[in-house]
Amino acid sequence: MPVAKAVRADLERASWIRRMFEEGRRLREADPSLPVYDFSLGNPDLEPPEALLRALRELVADTAKGTHAYMPNVGYRETREAIARKVSREHAFPVAFSDVVMTVGAAGGLNVLLHAILDSGDEVVVVRPWFAEYRFYINKHGGRMVEAGTGPGFALDVDAIRRALGPRTKALILNSPNNPTGRIYPRSDVEALSAVLLAHGEATGTSPLLIVDEPYRDLAYEGAVVPPVMDAYPETVVCSSFSKSLSVPGERIGYLAVSSRCADKSLLMDALAMGMRTLGFVNAPALMQRAVARVADEKADIASYARRRALLLEAVRSAGLAFAPPEGAFYLFCEVPPRGPKGRAADAARAAASGAATGGAAAAESPDVAFAMFLKDYRILLVPGSGFGMPGWARLSYAVDEALIRGVAPELKAALGKWRE
Ligand SMILES: Cc1ncc(COP(=O)(O)O)c(C=O)c1O
Fold first, then answer.
1. Does any ligand 1 atom lie closer than 6 A to the CB of residue 49?
2. Is 38 helix (H, G, I), strand (E, B) or coil?
3. Which of 112, 211, 213, when mutated, tests ligand 1's pocket best, judged by the most ligand atoms within 8 Å of its CB?
4. Is the CB of 103 inside a 6 Å radius of any atom of ligand 1?
5. 215 lines ligand 1 (CB under 6 A)
6. Which one has a higher pLDDT value, 65 or 290?
7. pLDDT score of 259
8. Of 253, 229, 231, 250, whose CA–CA distance to 79 is shortest?
């Protein structure tokens, strides 16, 4: 069966992610007795809170008629009420249950929303580095991703965002705490961004939608606070999930909350319900909707991420790697250090050999991809920054065993010594 050209292009673009995954599998199979220091996956690994597990046990035992039936596409009212209370508190802005759509994770929510708003050729501004899936989602719904650069330490650069806005801009995605940098954008940035979007709206007659993608909102460390956004800008939709806060990414439960100040809000709500149908989700999983209605404000024990964050920071610091200050989520974004002269010569020879082997010109490997491939030989896996639009950087996830972080410290130091030779 021939696969669509667009999907083939997606597969090509995502190939390095598959490559890291395959490398991990190969390393584990080659010698199961040796550890693989795999920091490539952002997979929450905490136990869900006991209150959620208890709620699930009780709900599974419920045999009331209609428990497993279809429901409105936007979800159960009791669940939407619980989400409305949560988002109202977090965003210092009143949200009604009728402003909420329950979705299949934040990923499902983003797709339903982009599907609802994008006409072919519409633009969505994202801040670089960006979550790797954004480009796939935006393209899938006929849009075009436009990048805005960031300032030192990946701070929001509102002027860069202003320059990225144009007559076709339909939305901007703000992801805080950020994947991959761990940055949390402070309230002053939110206000500056709001002013830029409002000015753009006044000048062009159409205000871009601000999509606040915040599945990591509860993962903030050392007293860092994720500020409200919905109160700052009228055209705001919050997209989030319980994948991280309750540590249940496999259960696929998330939501969209639409500001009551959005123009044409009721038409947008209809479009979101329609998207749930036509994209084939129909509704978010019923059992999880019932469960989160009871425990929406519970949190997994993030102290364990905080401990692992501190350990990884120490390991990376002592290896001499520079990194962006990670205030939230569970990622560390590191700058790839310069390659030493010996290594540069070896890399050039390898690239020439692979060019000769494929009968083509030697492909210029970006430094982060070369770095990831080099570390793989030390059984250390991380994700090259190219996948987030940021060559020269690399992402490590600390949602991994503490023992692995302790173990990698000397290995990383040794590997970096060789890299710099
Ligand atoms: C920035 C960002 N947005 C959205 C998602 C999707 O999360 P979910 O599991 O809720 O679909 C992720 C998942 O890793 C993410 O990192």
1. no
2. strand
3. 213
4. no
5. yes
6. 290
7. 98
8. 253
What is the spatial distance between Cα 166 and Cα 56, in angstroms, rounded to a whole number? Answer: 47
Cβ-based neighbours of 47, under 8 Å, separated by 6 or more: 247, 300, 301
pLDDT in tens, 34-51: 999 999 988 899 999 999
Percent of the chain at pLDDT exceeding 90: 82
What is the pLDDT, as a whole number, of residue 362? 47
Domains and CATH numbers, the chain: 5-47+301-420 (3.90.1150.10), 50-295 (3.40.640.10)
What residues does 169 pair with on adjacent strands?
A: 123
Q: Which atom of ligand 1 is nearest to the CA of 240?
A: 10
- Total Cβ atoms within 10 A of residue 68: 10
Identify any residues that bridge with 125 across adjacent strands, giving them in sequence order. 146, 172
Residue with tokens 């404000």: 297
Question: Ligand 1 in contact with 249 (CB < 6 A)?
Answer: yes
pLDDT at 348: 77
Rounded to an integer, what distance in angstroms lies between the CA atom of residue 236 and that of residue 38?
A: 37
Q: Two tokens at 50? A: 């006991």
pTM of the model: 0.94
Which atom belonging to ligand 1 lies closest to the Cα atom of 104?
11
48 CB less than 6 Å from ligand 1?
A: no
DSSP string, 18-37: HHHHHHHHHHHHH-TTS--E
pLDDT on residue 363: 54
Q: How far is the CA of 177 from the centre of ligand 1 (A)?
A: 11
330-343 pLDDT, tens digit each: 999 999 999 999 88
